[in-house]
């Protein structure tokens, strides 16, 4: 009898090990307000980022990856649900104590957990701050970090003016670990998230496939890093913060390699949106027009690199266009996790990402919003982008050393840009290509019929 039980256990363990190898582990590294050019090889910043460079050299660097809304909560909800903000109803940034993302919209962690994955989230959440919408209720086995942005605290005079002395707690596995984080605690946010992530990798490696969502609070202001990174970049505090994030990427890659799962793991690295430009030298630089909270490329185009040794050719650069809403269905297909077509707006774009000859984007258009306003429609090949008439936040005087600069509302007329020839969106071609503008305009009108904003 003991021999039978032992044989059964050995068989079960073998099956689990086989499952872990047949179904990829997934590590999704998601930054907050990082600019497109903050890391080499996407840009040429005045500091080294060797670990991100290595990640790109061992994987694929995608140059035309977009998010559907360049704001914290909206971008995160779109990423994890595969749905546009108008469908999942998360726009702008969710305040503390708010419900946030409706649980009727499943997220990656919930679906993957139901199909045998271990799941963990470390870092920033920002998708809801009531019991039903916190990470442990949304499919994560482990969680540690902030439920909102790191500037939503009483040490921020702008925030305090509207919200008073509300504490900013640090959570761990469903309970408050630090009741009100201090400036000294902020120094450790990147390291704490990294340490939790590497422990999770080492504990799960080879046992069952895992999904790890590492969502750093940085480089969102206020900027903090550990003392050992202060001055290390030689490029000011912002460079020091980016240098520590690069260190974090190296720690993740080391944990995967030493745990023997590097070849079986998909690693994705990107940001929720572009830089918060009004903070001047406490924000990153982008080669594109404008910044966070706008629908220009400076807000919605994020640096993106993916490593998957099984299927992606290392050192490749891809100009194929796709969006963050596509990651959920794409990863689900790779993990053999079934999804209903109706569950997401995103599509499986793996053939496109892999660079298959003749692969086409299964979308016709992508839709870009700020708040409830649909502001732009883009062709799925990433060539044409129609801006509908709208106002946008224009920085006229950047801040300095953590101070917030001055902005004004500028108006944009209906404009059509060729993003291949004009990625900085300067030359309005609407008069030359009225047929293309008409197609994109009609696609936008149809989108709003499907997902109307709430009645005022």
What does this structure look like?
This protein has 456 residues and is an alpha/beta fold. Helix content is 29%, strand content 20%. It contains 13 helices and 17 strands. The strands form 3 sheets. Strands 1, 2, 3, 4, 5, 6, 7, 8, 9, 10 and 11 form an 11-stranded mixed beta sheet that branches. Strands 12-13-14-17 form a 4-stranded antiparallel beta sheet, with helices on one face. The protein has a two-stranded antiparallel ribbon with strand order 15-16. The chain is globular.
Structural class per helix/strand content? alpha/beta
- What's the number of extended β-strand segments? 17
Q: Mind summarizing the main beta sheet?
A: 11 strands, mixed
Any guess at the CATH architecture of the largest domain? 3-Layer(aba) Sandwich
Total DSSP helices:
13
Q: Between the first and last Cα atoms, what is the distance in angstroms? A: 70 Å
Radius of gyration: 22 Å
CATH fold-level topology of the largest domain = Alkaline Phosphatase, subunit A
Q: N-to-C SSE series?
A: HEHEHHHEEHEEHHEHEHEEEHHEEEEEEH
Q: What's the CATH H-level homologous superfamily of the largest domain?
A: Alkaline Phosphatase, subunit A
The chain-level mean pLDDT equals: 95
Strand composition percent: 15-25%
Helix content: 25-40%
CATH C-level class of the largest domain is Alpha Beta
Based on the model shown, name its key terms.
single chain, 456 residues, alpha/beta, Alkaline Phosphatase, subunit A, Arylsulfatase, C-terminal domain, 2 domains, 11-stranded mixed sheet, 4-stranded antiparallel sheet, 17 strands, 20% strand, globular
């Amino acid at each position: 009898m003991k021999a039978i039980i032992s044989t059964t256990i050995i068989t079960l363990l073998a099956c689990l090990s086989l499952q872990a190898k047949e179904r990829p582990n997934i590590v999704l590294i998601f930054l907050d307000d990082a600019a497109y050019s903050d890391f080499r090889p996407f840009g040429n910043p005045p500091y080294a980022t060797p670990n991100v460079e290595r990640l790109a050299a061992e994987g694929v660097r995608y140059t035309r990856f977009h998010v559907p809304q360049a704001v914290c909560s909206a971008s995160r909800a779109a990423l994890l649900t595969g749905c546009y903000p108008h469908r999942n109803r998360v726009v702008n940034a969710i305040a503390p104590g708010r419900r946030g993302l409706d649980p009727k919209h499943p997220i990656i962690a919930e679906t993957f957990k139901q199909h045998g994955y271990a799941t963990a989230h470390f870092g920033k959440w920002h998708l809801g701050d009531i019991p039903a919408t916190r990470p442990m209720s949304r499919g994560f086995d482990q969680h540690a970090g902030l439920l909102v942005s790191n500037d939503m605290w009483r040490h921020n005079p702008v925030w305090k003016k509207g919200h008073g002395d509300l504490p900013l707690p640090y959570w761990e596995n469903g309970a408050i670990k630090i009741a009100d984080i201090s400036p000294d605690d902020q120094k450790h946010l990147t390291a704490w998230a990294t340490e939790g992530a590497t422990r999770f990798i080492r504990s799960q490696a080879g046992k069952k496939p895992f999904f790890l969502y590492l969502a750093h609070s940085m480089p969102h202001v206020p900027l903090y890093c550990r003392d050992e990174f202060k001055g290390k970049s030689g490029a000011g505090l912002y460079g020091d913060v980016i240098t520590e994030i690069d260190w974090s990427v190296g720690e993740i890659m080391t944990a995967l390699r030493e745990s023997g799962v590097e070849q079986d793991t998909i690693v994705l690295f990107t940001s929720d949106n572009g830089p918060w430009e009004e903070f001047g030298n406490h924000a990153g630089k982008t080669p594109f027009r404008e910044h966070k909270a706008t629908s220009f490329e400076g807000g919605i185009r994020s640096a993106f690199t993916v490593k998957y040794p099984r299927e992606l050719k290392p050192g490749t650069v891809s100009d194929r266009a796709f969006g963050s809403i596509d990651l959920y269905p794409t990863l689900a297909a790779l993990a053999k996790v079934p999804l209903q077509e109706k569950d997401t707006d995103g599509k499986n774009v793996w053939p496109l990402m892999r660079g298959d000859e003749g692969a086409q984007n299964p979308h016709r258009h992508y839709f870009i919003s700020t708040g409830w306003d649909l502001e732009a429609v883009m062709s799925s090949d990433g060539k044409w982008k129609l801006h509908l008439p709208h106002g946008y936040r224009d920085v006229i005087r950047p801040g300095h050393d953590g101070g917030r600069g001055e902005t004004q509302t500028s108006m944009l007329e209906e404009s059509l840009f060729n993003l291949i020839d004009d990625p900085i969106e300067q030359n309005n071609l609407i008069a030359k290509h009225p047929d293309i503008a008409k197609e994109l305009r009609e696609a936008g009108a149809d989108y709003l019929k499907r997902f109307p904003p709430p009645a005022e």
